[in-house]
Sequence to fold (659 residues):
Amino acid sequence: QAATLSAITPPALPIVDDFNDGNSNGWVEVDEAGAASSWSVISGEFYQVKRVESVLAFDQSYHLGSYAYLQSGMGLTDYRFSVSATYLASQTADDIGVMFRYQDNNNYYRLSFNSRYGFTRLEKKVGGVFTPLASDARGYGQGQQLDIEIEVNGSRILVFVNGDPLFAVQDNDLTAGTVALYNQDQSKYDNVVIQQIDNATPRIVISSPAAYSVVTANVLDVSAMATNVPFGGYVEFVLDGGVATLTDTLPPYTGQFTGVSQGNHTIEAILRDDMGLELARDTNVAIGASGDYAIALGDSIHNGVGDNFAYDNIMNQAGRIVSFQGLETNLTDLLEAPASTAYPNIVINEAIGGDESADTAFTRVNSILARNAGANRALLLLGTNDAGAMIPSGAGCSGSACAGTYKGNMQSLVDALVADGLEVWVGLVPPAFGSGDVPYGSPLTALRNTDYVQAYNQVIQTELTGIQVGPDFFGYFLGPAVNRFSLFSDTLHPNALGHVVMAQLWHNALTGRNDPLPFVLENLVPSTAAPYLKQNLLEAGDTYYVDAGFTLTSIPALLQQGRWIMTANADAGNASTAYISFDVDRPVSVYVAYDQGATVLPAWMNGYVNTGLTLGTSDPAAPVLALYRQDFAAGSIVLGGNAEGGGNGVSNYVVIVTD
Fold:
């Protein structure tokens, strides 16, 4: 039930707050996630500087954080609200956004952007219940300023971002309320303006289909909202610059293009006057027809925890996804590649860290389906947290005996997805390489893997009904002659390179192809038992040792997608002639990044050539690492220790391998 605000006298407009007065008087801060925020005005901008996404928020489909609402605006009804918002936290890429027609913590509209998952969402919360109104898979770029404008007029909601019309929806649940600034981590806001509706300038916003979206049919249902339409005015919808056109003279402005060819298309909505003169135009691009729209469900692995490499995630080739982590962008690109399906695809990240099969099956599936009404495919990867909680597999159970088991939970989830018309794929659960931070001495025989993970995988392969069996992630990362722990960021989560491999494995399963898997270093062995060396994809801002927090500050472009061997800085004094060894299946170039301040190189580097290139680091003892190169044929490669032969680099070296 929405609150009643009719008795509140609305303030005079415009309301302007640029925070140049050094205070946030009139703004009321609310922490809805159980974590304390810290709001303050700094240099004329309104900052919130703490992470306020609680652990509980991981279990919820609709995110919670902190917000500050303008107390004096409670009586507002129809208005235009604009603000500049910038997300500041470097790695988490969580929510930033605004709320409007805010009445209380249980009743408001919210626009939020997130680049961990990759989305922009328009939602309403009425009587404490969230409902999706519009969304896409595009978050924000790192450090990007978002210039947000919301127009609410009666039941009409128009959303503009950076001057571009984004969403247009009709909803009459909340008719009055103030504005608020919302986030889940370090963010800043400036130039808040609330003003009267412009009743003169014609504008138009396409409601559907959204830009960068995918529909599974060869039909495009189009709709738009227009403001300040003159007498006799009408809307013209144009497909692909004039391949086909439709007109509608009365709101709601709608139309349908049928027989649309498979591929990407552009829709334009043009508002014209009675003489046919153009008054306003909105254009939505990269609308895929006759494609596949997949939802990736699961836990933190499918969500992308461990994937620190934003370079291959920030925007896929069709522009459909803007995110910082996860395999979904990589998989979307692989599926849309000309050598693959060559038709439109999108994979939406709906995975939540901490989810067990029961959470997704009984708490979240309905909200996921509500947000993704056009999906035709579901990709499931669940079981890692079930194994940690020792949820029984339920192998061989039937009926009520399956309640509370992995099999029972997964079958309930599959049934719900199938009932909604989705084709369901279930990937085999990856191995656990340890408990907490401690690796298993023998992961293949560890109880968590034998009695739980592998038991779940057997259920997936032989007992779940209504599914297609997806990729064998367990077998890729761990087997009798395989141990690819070097592709994990910790004991449970694949790292960035591991996620690239997982995307290819999903691609091969979905397409029935056997395309080559991404290049990795095999049998990577350090001469020290722990901490274990890792191979990964790295970029500026990432740590490059497995045991130290120093970060890369600059990287030559030619190493952008090299395979980095992350060594232990504690091994800087290692004088072995065989510190690292690994195998490669192709000719490679090996770059050794060695302390530029060293006067003596290890003897094993005698065949390496100084490239003149360097890495910049935050390590005060070795702020610059000089890059030395040697080429190798396919086979085994052995590298000695940092101090072998009198090498006197202060910090340990790092290795980058390119093919």
Notes: The chain has four domains: 15-195, 203-289, 292-517, 524-658. Residues 292-517 form a domain with the Rossmann fold fold (CATH 3.40.50.1110).
